[in-house]
Amino acid sequence: MKAQALANHLILYFPLILLACFLVYPVCAVIAGGIAAGFRTSPLQVLTSPITLQALLFSAYQAALSTLLAVGLGLPGAYLLARLRFRGSSIVRAAMVVPFVLPPIVVVVGFLQMFGSFGFLDSLAMAVLGSQTSVLNLATGTTGIVLAHAFYNVPLVVLMVSSSLERLNPDVEESAEILGASPIRKMQRIVLPHILPALLASATLTYLFCFTSFPIVLSLGGGAYSTLEVRIWYAFRGFDYSEASTLALVQILITVALAFSYFRLGRSRSYDASPTSSIKQFSIGELRGRYVVLALAYVALLLVLVAGPIVAVVRAAIYDPVARVYTLEGFGSLISTGLGGGMVPLINSVFYAGISTVLAVILGVPLAYANRNQNSTMSSISSIATFLPLGVSAITLAYGLMLSVVVPLGLSVNPWPAIVLAQTMIGLPFSARSIEVALRNIDPALLDQADLLGASRLQRLFFVEIPLLAPGILVGAVFAFAMAIGEMSATLFIALPQNVTLAVAIYQNLSVRKFVQAGAASLVLVVVCLVAFLAIERMTGRRLGGVL
Amino acid sequence: MTVRIELRSLRREFSDGTHVGPVDLTIEEGELLTLLGPSGSGKTTTLRMVAGFIRPSSGSLTFNGQDMIDVSPRDREIGMVFQSVALFPNMTVFENMAFGLEMARWSRTRIMDRVDELSRVLDIRELLNRRISEVSGGEAQRVAVARALARKPKVLLLDEPLSSLDPQLRDRLQMEIRKVQRSLGITTLYVTHNQTEAFAISDRIAIMNDGIVVQVGRPEELYENPRSEFVARFLGSGNVFSGIVEDVHKASISVRVKDHVFEVSGQRERSSNVCFTVKPENVRIELSQSGAEPMAAVVSVIPQAGSNRIVLDFEGNEVISILTDDAIVSRLRNSENSRVGFAFNPDSAVLIG
Description:
- The structure holds 2 protein chains of 2 kinds.
- Chain A is built from 24 helices and 4 strands.
- Chain A is mainly alpha-helical.
- Chain A has a single domain (2-547), classed as MetI-like (MetI-like fold).
- In chain A, β3 (319-320) and β4 form a beta hairpin.
- Chain A starts with a helix and ends in an 8-residue tail after the last helix.
- The relative contact order of chain A is 0.13.
- Helix content of chain B is 26%, strand content 35%.
- Chain B is elongated and about 80 Å long.
- Chain B has a 6-stranded mixed beta sheet, with helices on both faces. In chain B, strands 13-12-11-14-20 form a 5-stranded antiparallel beta sheet. In chain B, strands 15-19-16-17-18 form a 5-stranded antiparallel beta sheet.
- Chain B folds into 2 domains: 5-230, Rossmann fold; 238-351, CATH 2.40.50.100.
- Chain B contains 9 helices and 20 strands.
- In chain B, β9 (204-209) and β10 (212-217) form a beta hairpin.
- By secondary structure, chain B is α+β, with helices and mostly antiparallel strands.
- At the A-B interface, α9 and α10 of A face β6 and α2 of B.
């Protein structure tokens, strides 16, 4: 009995031990080492320097703008998705996940093609105005950054808020009506308080993602706009470890606070009752003309902002904006194995992401179980551990892994294990969360039934629990794979030329203005993510909002 | 102050092709009328048309002769209690009860007084500061009733308010609802699928089936004189037999049911289809068989207060007999699944329709 309890604890604790070794320790080592070394600038100098202050302010400012825009654009969508009865609403709901799993660097490519110079919108404006030069470039500076962040996070807000709205019992709304509440008062007093936790949680998550955003700011912002993460990147590149470490510490403190409040908000969502059988819905025919126009305008806006960049990737793969010709050169380079060819990055991407996915699932299952643990300290620790990777700067993690894994183990010649480790950490929150959601949906009576029928613990696990969990594990694996294959920040930091992945190759091609090569590689990643989305859709049906 | 509600040919078609109505019904001033019927019979749809949540496709709805179709739910001066209770989870009990009053812009002192008064009537004073998650099912239902009554509505609508409660609590609460409704004299429409509940609480009952009202009456009228086979079977007021008239006598007819012919008092045309009921207490069980009476299998013997309930299977038809003769009962109990004869007096059979 004692041996079994010990085994149970080991199984539950080993993800925590691994997280401690490969996430907490490297990051702490970097920060402590950097601050102690005081290589070029002292920590105090860094903290008080105007550049730091500017980066901090810009991080906060662009994240706030992005969050406002995402919530503003997401709320009507959440309402429509929950309340409007239309054909294909389940497909729309599932498709909302696509932007979320799309690699940021691919979004950059799509954004440049959609909103940048000589992009779709620009070409249209040029044709209308009869201009030969670019007239419209929205994919640059703060505008570009905020729009790209909105692209990512509008679907997040829509999914989380609409799934909360669906849990509002229609009788409650009708009670308010019959007690004399006008539509506005009903919104204020009943609907808004109900969706508030979900709204705040989605806003916090959005703010967190935007605050630590790296590839989008680096590529769309140019050198002029830097967030903390970008400053950390430049500091490491400039070998100023003291500055990098200090900035990383500041960023971690902020993001951990944000992640913690998200986690707290998630807990307080408990009074959201189970999904109601009847949702108060209306069909398009019941809407008055004015509202139909508004709804259509909104949908059109969302299509341009969210679907536009994804579709634009197709054009990016075959249209060379420098030479202004259509070409298949991008695909040619993609299958070339030579120097600068796409074959090696493609193989690398699949190989690294594949191993990371397996690891993320192996770590995710015990974490999910630990999250469900009756013991509340244990479940709190594991919940925090699950979300920890979301709050840690990918660049810092990458540097930490270089320092504490690659160098001591003599992997400097080929540091691929560090890439795999970084990608595992980034996919872990998503695999653990999906599995936890699946675990929560298992009827405990079913497991008791297995016990009563005389199944041993292992039999129960393999013949009852794992098959019931299989869809959740698969969804988690798909999420983790999508996150891993799209990961750019840490990989860019660690990778030597032979370790380059597709996401990194896209960035490198973009920076040397090889746009079609970047476009073709992006298209490959879009297709991978679409397939992933279809797989998730098949496996979960509705209710993807619950995974986030 | 009190309202008389009239529904005239009220009808609603749904996009899936189904419809409810036409419903014709009058609810008198201060009366408690129950809509009773199986699920899917249109009770709730009818109630929601009265509330204004569903707009009728045709027909009229009047309160004291005043047309209500174009009046929005919040202007109909209705109090409503939902099956799901539907209290506002983000508010306390007090805030729930005060909500309607706030919407009507009552002053703070008047709100306090009114909530205090109602909480005494419904015995929920000690709950006022609790959150909704902290009250039990029965308490929540009281709060819901109090909330519905707070604004002194002219009409009270109750949609299966007690169906999620356990039987004892349900009995107590239905008596309390009845008491409050009587003392306020508020015109009330009550929806339930539970016959016992309907009989206990109602002044009159309207039985619904397939979207229309099939019979309206006081509980004892419905029980004694069901006008259709559906009502008789639904209320379980007796054993229902249906068959064909084989022969017509002076004061009675012979009705063939399956392979047996029963004598029933009353007149019908020869060869017509008829339906009749026999009360369980009038069904005799014959242990000494003469060969003439119909035979049925004994399904079960259920003891109940002062008597025993015998369930028989007569060629697929359930026949129930209430016996007080312990000698017969004990012999039946020892011979379950065996076949026995049964009979009834022609005068105790009532023709339906």
